[in-house]
Task: inverse folding
């Protein structure tokens, strides 16, 4: 049996935030809010690796999004939106740390030790706002989500798995599943809706407030 | 025709994946974004994606905190924060350049201190070495003064090279007969048409 040749294909990385960022840059505040919701936890975890203080992480995260909001018009789309946001967060955190170090009344406990393992994945580190109870609740929600995923009809499970885990575009999924792109979009939406019915109330209880 | 109530949430799902044709979906998306449930739906879709990608073992807290967004919006409203107008970088450089650096406040003063130190160093070096032209001229003048002497000759005082005078004097002392005026025989010997050299 002959082996098929390996064909190297150029992988085009598409920023999935592009449509939302475009609307936010055009002045749609709701679009900006969706970006905040999407990246809030990730930015807080990033800052939490640099700063111990609970309130300071929150403040720096707020300041990060404020700066991003101000500078939205300057974002030209040359890089992924999160890359741009990441740089703002790091710069904001560094500036805050420098300001604090100049303050003789601030305890060293505010800052993370330089000996902290930089290689530990961000997702596995508790941040200031992630209490053990909150993490336990999140694990429970994650378990429910994955159980609901397994319970989906095959075509829905396959579509959302190819999207979320494999990162394929709708076009690539339509080729893989031999169906139109509209059908791919519909299947992914139905998969999300089915799972969302089970976890949405739990998510709102976790945050303590309704949106 | 699709049920509008069914169609709009599908738009939001496509937006999660960045798979929206902005031109075609613009109107529908505007309605979606204005919906009262858009935050809740969006938050749920993001949490689902995170949980599927990372499995049930991740410690990361799922879902955003609604209070965070409310505080952010309150601050934007209270402080009247507005997006800054766009300005062109000319070459289309990414706006990361406009982000303030961590050492922005002190960098300017560090540059000033650096230039001041450089200028001070140059001044010290200049004073130590001195002006090259002046010192060379002075040295040459001094050498010239050392090298020149005034000699009394039958013609009167003559400024002559001191070193040459020393050599001539030494030569006369050691065997200066050759420097005396040649005898008449020798003077006329080599010159058939000799005339007075005017000496």
Result:
């Amino acid at each position: 049996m002959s082996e098929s040749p390996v064909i190297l294909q150029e992988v085009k990385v598409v920023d999935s935030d592009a449509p939302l960022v475009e609307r936010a840059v055009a002045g749609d505040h709701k679009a900006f809010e969706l970006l905040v919701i999407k990246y809030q936890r990730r930015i807080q975890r990033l800052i939490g690796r640099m700063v111990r203080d609970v309130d300071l992480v929150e403040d720096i995260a707020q300041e990060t999004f404020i700066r991003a909001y101000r500078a939205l018009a300057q974002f030209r789309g040359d890089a992924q939106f999160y890359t741009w946001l990441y740089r703002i967060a790091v710069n904001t955190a560094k500036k805050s740390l420098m300001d604090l170090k100049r303050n003789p009344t601030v305890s060293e406990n505010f800052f993370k030790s330089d000996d902290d393992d930089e290689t530990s994945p961000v997702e596995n580190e508790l941040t200031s706002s992630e209490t053990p109870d909150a993490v336990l609740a999140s694990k429970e929600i994650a378990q429910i989500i994955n159980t609901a995923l397994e319970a989906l009809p095959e075509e829905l499970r396959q579509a959302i798995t190819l999207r979320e885990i494999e990162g394929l575009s709708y076009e690539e999924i339509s080729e893989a599943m031999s169906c139109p792109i509209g059908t791919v979009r519909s299947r992914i939406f139905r998969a999300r809706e089915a799972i969302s019915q089970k976890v949405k109330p739990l998510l709102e209880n976790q945050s303590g407030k309704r949106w | 025709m699709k049920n509008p109530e069914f169609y709009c949430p599908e738009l939001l799902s496509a937006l999660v994946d960045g798979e929206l044709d902005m031109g075609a979906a613009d109107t529908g998306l505007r309605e979606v974004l204005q919906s009262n449930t858009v935050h809740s739906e969006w938050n749920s879709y993001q949490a689902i994606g995170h949980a599927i990608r990372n499995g049930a073992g991740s410690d990361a807290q799922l879902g955003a905190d609604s209070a965070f967004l409310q505080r952010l919006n309150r601050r934007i409203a209270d402080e009247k924060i507005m997006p800054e107008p766009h300005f062109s970088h000319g070459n289309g450089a990414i706006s990361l350049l406009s982000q303030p650096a961590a050492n922005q406040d002190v960098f300017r003063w560090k540059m000033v201190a650096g230039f001041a130190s450089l200028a001070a160093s140059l001044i010290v070096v200049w004073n130590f070495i001195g002006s090259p032209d002046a010192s060379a001229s002075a040295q040459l003048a001094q050498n010239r003064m050392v090298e020149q002497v005034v000699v009394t000759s039958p013609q009167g005082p003559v400024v002559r090279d001191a070193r040459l005078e020393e050599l001539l004097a030494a030569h006369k002392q050691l065997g200066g007969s050759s420097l005396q005026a040649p005898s008449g025989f020798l003077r006329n010997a080599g010159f058939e048409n000799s005339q007075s050299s005017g000496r």
About this structure: Residues 8 and 30 of chain B are 10 Å apart (CA to CA).
